[in-house]
Amino acid sequence: MFFTDLHCHPILKCYGKNCHHASAEKDNQANLFFHKPFSFWNRIIENTTTITPYRQADFISAVEGNTVILGFSMYSPEKDFFLGDIDNSFLENAVTHFGTTWIDEIKSPKNDYFKTLKCQFRFIEELNGKDIKIGNETYRYRIIQSGKELEEALISQERNTVFLIYNIEGGHNLFRQINTKEETSQTIVPESIEFLKSKAPLYVTMAHHFYNQLTGHCISFSDSVAGHLDQKFGSDLGLRPQGESVIRQLLSTDNGPRILIDIKHMNPRARNQYYTILDEMERESYGKIPIIFSHGGANGMDSFTTHRINNPLLHHEEIGLYDDEIIRLVRSGGLFGLNLDERVMSSPETLKKTKCYKWPKRRFFETSKLIWNNIEQIVRVCAAESLNPWPHICIGSDYDGIINPINGFWTLKYMPRFKTYLQKHLHKFLRENKKMDFGMTEQEIIDGIFSRNTTDFIIKHYNPEQQINT
């Protein structure tokens, strides 16, 4: 069986190399297939520093793990990420592996987010569909831009081929430069919406790590990082008027194909305002628009209003979804992508307990349970409302998005192992909660999470050529 990943960042550790041009040379780090196997020393460095000195979403790892459909995230890194009180490109490269040249460009007063976004599209399109020879094997990647095209690609079963679905992370990508420390009258680049419509990504994540003049965001950094990088401004604001305008333009089919909105990184105030927009658009005959939460977890609390903790095992921060939001997402026909970053998928106490297990099988069982705890929360919340949640859960790993993956499942290569362990938790859960299978077999559920739910969603909702109102 093949695997899917709704959200990952294969481009970030490639784009800064080779003067921002893709390479087909196997030893060139600007090659999306550039690969070094995960090693014992990688694990030692990660465990002692939380730095991940390896690629998690390179296309060789994807092929080896049979993860052939990737939500390929385009993202121009925010300047603020590199302008904290540790302003050292060498150290910043040790953490990100973006390359010191690109990091210096990002920090430059001339840095242009929208220009970088367009250059990233050029980067990935340079070798689209072209054969890349590595050893005795030939590989390729193909950009898919409609559900129909995906159906045809899956039928063809091309060997050693990775299929890419565009998405864009962060509304700041629509600006040339941006002031993140105060609210201003800055506006998006006039042609940015037109450009996005021409590229037709499946979804756009409106917020990211810093205020972007469009919407309030969540605090996303750990306490150790937050001491060096200030995310506070804008974190208590809701949707701004320009942000609401951008959302309506992206969702509209009067100006080109619909581009869905990803609510990850938006703070609860902004998310609730977005839900109101969806209700209004449904009344305006736009139809039911699905909610995407591309790479995150449940926060184990009932609602933004009361903050009552229902599950002590989870990460109790607003960057995760509240129980009432999970219900709304499922009712909308949306997708909940499970992040594989250990820090944002569990409480610190729960995560700490996994570190004491020495034997790999037991350790992998316990670390995979960090993700299972989120699934169980989704299922129990929906079951209380007689809603079947299983078709709406998928993987949105966020690999290579500067995350610390859960132990044992470090790269896309380990997706089959991850499925095996997650199925153990599912089997135990259904044995004790038979009615929560909603008439589905165990195999149907697990295959849905790792493959079918994402492909079914794309085939149903990603039809740019059919959406344009004329």
Explain what the structure shows.
With 470 residues, the chain is of the alpha/beta class. The protein has 17 helices and 10 strands. It has one domain: Metal-dependent hydrolases (TIM Barrel). The chain has helices at residues 12-15, 40-49, 59-64, 89-96, 100-107, 113-125, 147-156, 192-199, 223-226, 241-251, 268-283, 323-331, 348-354, 360-383, 415-432, 442-461, 464-467, and strands at 3-8, 67-74, 132-134, 137-144, 161-169, 203-205, 260-262, 292-296, 335-338, 393-395. The strands form 2 sheets. Strands 1, 2, 3, 4, 5, 6 and 7 form a 7-stranded mixed sheet that branches. α12 links the parallel β8 and β9. The radius of gyration is 21 Å and the shape is globular. The mean pLDDT is 95.
User: What is the tally of helical segments?
Assistant: 17
> What is the third-level CATH name, the topology?
TIM Barrel
In CATH's first tier, which class applies? Alpha Beta
H/E topology pattern? EHHHEHHHEEHEHEHHEHEHEHHEHHH
CATH superfamily: Metal-dependent hydrolases
Low-confidence stretches: none
Secondary structure: number of strands: 10
Q: Domains counted in the coordinates: how many?
A: 1
Radius of gyration: 21 Å
Major sheet attributes: 7 strands, mixed
CATH architecture: Alpha-Beta Barrel
Backbone structural class: alpha/beta
Give the end-to-end Cα distance, rounded to a whole number of Å: 40 Å
Q: Quick one: overall form?
A: globular
